[in-house]
Amino acid sequence: MANALVTMTHALTTMAYALTTMAHALATMTHALTIMAHALVRMTHALTTMANALATMAHALATMAHALATMTHALTTIAHALVTMAHALVTIAQAITTMAHTLATTTHALVRMTHALTTMANALATMAHALATMAHALTTMAHALATMGHALVTIAHALVTMAHALTRSHFDPSLSHNGLCFSYNDPCFSHKGPCPSHNGPCLSHNGPCLNSNGPCLSHNGYNDPCLNSNGPCLSHNGPCHNHNGPCLKHNGPCLNHNGPCLNHNQWPMP
After folding, report:
1. CA dist., res. 267 & res. 134, Å (int)
2. What transmembrane ranges does the database entry give (predicted)?
3. Ranges 117-126, 131-140, 173-182, most confident
4. Rounded distance between C-alpha atoms, residue 163 and residue 117, angstroms
5. Residue 135 located in a structural domain
6. Which residue range forms the structural domain that includes residue 258?
């Protein structure tokens, strides 16, 4: 019986050890499951971060696509403006060709007029000499006629000079430093004064540049606006007022009705 009790005690001790080992194993398993749960939480957080990064990347790609579309539109507008400028340059070239033809015709007419005036002066001088030879007694009258012939020659020379000056002022470019520069078809260059021109190019440094059809180029501030009706309007600092042609501005406001408005620093206004 004592042996049986010893055996039973040993069996209970062994069972207690087994239960202790099992409890330790369960504690170890619980710790492992806790670690696994933490790992799953971290993995979930990592996947969420990755999803947010993908969403941000998608938004960035959409923004880039919109920027590319805007750039394409801007390039199309620039191309249209360049085509319009090319058309304006062709028109200017045709106007210059017409002006050259007109100058050639006028020069030929002036040569004929000069020859006629010279012939008339020679005829008057011959008539004065004939009167002096035929009527020696009328010396005073002959002297008066000779003086009149000399005056007519001087007048003829003055007429030739005036015709040449009128030709230059009407057909040559009109150059002005401070005063007004008026031109109807020819180029108009002015340094400070206003430059009103109807068809020819109008280039002004400080004064207002007023043009109807030709290109209008103005350099400085708000006191020298570039006012143009149809041709291109190029101004560096002053306001650019244009009706139909392209309006190219560097700093000041750009006021345009129909054509494109290209501005560098300040606001485009409709």
Report:
1. 86
2. 15-41, 53-75, 81-104, 116-138, 144-166
3. 117-126
4. 12
5. yes
6. 174-270
